[in-house]
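Data availability (excerpt). The following record was deposited with the supplementary files.
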Amino acid sequence: EVQVVESGGGLVQPGGSLLLSCVASGFDFDDVTIGWFRQAPGKRREGVSCIKTIDGTTTYLDFAKGRFSISKDNDLDTLNLEMNDLRPEDTALYSCAKSGGPRFSLAPHSYDNWGQGTQVTVTS
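Predicted structure:
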């Protein structure tokens, strides 16, 4: 059974940092595209960043560039997202998911096997 389980969310002040983790199981973690997404209340789910686990190729949406960093650990089948300089507008439910095909994209419809997510709240 394919499964991804996120952790690491929490309440943080503006300017703070968090490290999110996603532990994967049930598929070959060494050759997939896996990504982080977020959904704020009343808004559509949007991509944050994704990575090809076979070679480490990454991409980020503009709001994440320079503040967020995606990484992987192929030995532990784990995906991480380091988030720095957090802002109130980063408040959302953050989820990871495995791409359903070979396309390297941050379009949510390209992904399947979503986790339950981990809540990130940025407030003073």
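Summary of structural features: The chain has a mean pLDDT of 95.
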